[in-house]
């Protein structure tokens, strides 16, 4: 039986380092190639030795697909393509292709230039890697080769994020990447058609969460920022340069306008100017409202939000600072956090998910004393708040997507094992389909049962309809006809049509069965008895006594012969064509039981 195999090299029962291998119809596809924010050693990248011990990946992989530009989905790409070695095509959307190299370069700078790490990809490797990228449009079917095709769907989440359908013949897999089923201030909601894949591979970051209404969260966020600023405190909001950052900037910008507030709002520079530039460039990927107002004013040109300079962190008085990265594991946000952590007037608001091992995760778990580099201890006195402005689907959203796509089975990645377990049970109960949650390096196998579509000739359908009551549309029904395979398509037609189309002459195939019975009568009388017997039993059928000494029931012929040495043993020859196979079988059984005794 054909089967599809899915093996996570990263993001199996874990968040971070997304990298999933799919084997489908003899093709191997890698979905995402991310790094892990919680590690600084070899575990940071996926373990490609699972695929190959020492040779390049080009021989094993038909293509690589990147769902969006977050580093936990694309951070290992230059390492995989340039250091391990892959020369095949890498597919992603246009915004992802534009933004990905900027984030990779930024990440390289922090790791190599600031931390001085070796065994890491170079700027040139990022450029060489991006040359292998093929950009795709939404809903465009891309032929990777003669058999493998892919198609992208809108995923919300961040600018350019897409879900991908991978199809080989009649087997298909949908990979969601990260997605959001509720529209926000700058992006629309994810959407997919009823494509009924064999497996839907879905993220499950918030598998057990059903989030409250967005409006309440926004009000709460503004209230906390406002209160801190009013009492002279500083607010740090660690964000990734693209995504929630724009969401919260638009929120604060409109609030500052409405309340006429004077406290400065800053954004750590560099990345964000580029980021906003890309939002303007790819305006069609944003939501309806932004596209409408775009003509009068660009939502991404902020009046109150200014560029941040490192020296501002020591300025007295209130301020709000957006700084990257979002989990406080390095860079500007961590630098500011260290400066402000000792003052209880200040506040840090974590707007998204934090991976285990990062400073963000530690302070959200309530740690008040942190061990920093160089053995120094940092005391956290500032207020720590967590507010999920995450752009991931919650449990309700994941169920909604399953309802949309109607997959035959679901596989969960990008989530914590305990939460996945809960969601897995819920999916299996509600949809009555298999749900898998393999750990890294484990393979989930699903047997596919590909349906082969066949066109049926109208004349055949009419003939079938005339034979009896109309079939129940929900129940399968057997059709008799001739199957013609031509130009890669299958058609079921009437035998007459097939003969005509193919220019063949008809051969009649008849089946003959011998039935022996004991009957003292002559051959002619035996035949008369058979005729009367069948007349009384088969009232529905046409039965004839032919002059050549045979009895005919529909197309079935019955002859009687007796051997000279044993005249009382009669051999009945029953012969039928394939259309009357059922009736032929029934007649043989009936005649084997013997004939009624003739009177007279």
Strand order of the largest sheet: 6-5-4-3-2-1-22
Strand content: 15-25%
Distance between the termini: 64 Å
Radius of gyration: 36 Å
Q: What summary fits the major beta sheet?
A: 7 strands, mixed
How many β-strands, per DSSP?
30
Structural class: alpha/beta
> Quick one: overall form?
elongated
The level of helicity is 25-40%
Our count of helices gives 16
Mean pLDDT comes to 90
**Low-confidence segments, ≥5 residues, pLDDT <50?**
none
Structural description of this entry:
The radius of gyration is 36 Å and the shape is elongated. The strands form six sheets. It has a seven-stranded mixed beta sheet with strand order 6-5-4-3-2-1-22. Strands 7-8-9-10-11-20-21 form a seven-stranded mixed beta sheet, with helices on one face. A six-stranded parallel beta sheet has the order 14-13-15-12-16-19, with helices on both faces. With 600 residues, it is of the alpha/beta class. The model has no long low-confidence stretch (mean pLDDT 90). Helices cover 30% and strands 24% of the residues. Strand 28 (550-553) and strand 29 form a beta hairpin.
Layout of helices and strands, plus pairs?
Layout: E1 3-10, E2 19-24, E3 27-31, E4 63-65, H1 71-74, H2 77-85, E5 90-93, H3 94-114, H4 123-130, E6 133-136, E7 141-143, E8 148-154, E9 162-168, E10 171-175, E11 199-203, H5 214-230, E12 234-238, H6 244-259, E13 265-268, H7 271-281, H8 288-293, E14 305-308, E15 319-323, H9 331-340, E16 347-350, H10 359-364, E17 369-371, E18 377-379, E19 383-386, H11 395-405, E20 409-413, H12 417-431, E21 434-436, E22 444-447, E23 455-456, H13 458-467, E24 482-486, E25 489-493, H14 495-502, E26 510-518, H15 523-537, E27 543-546, E28 550-553, E29 556-562, E30 569-577, H16 581-592
Parallel strand pairs: 3-4, 4-5, 5-6, 10-11, 11-20, 12-15, 12-16, 13-14, 13-15, 16-19, 20-21, 23-25
Antiparallel strand pairs: 1-2, 1-22, 2-3, 7-8, 8-9, 9-10, 17-18, 24-25, 26-30, 27-28, 28-29, 29-30
Helix pairs in contact: 2-4, 3-4
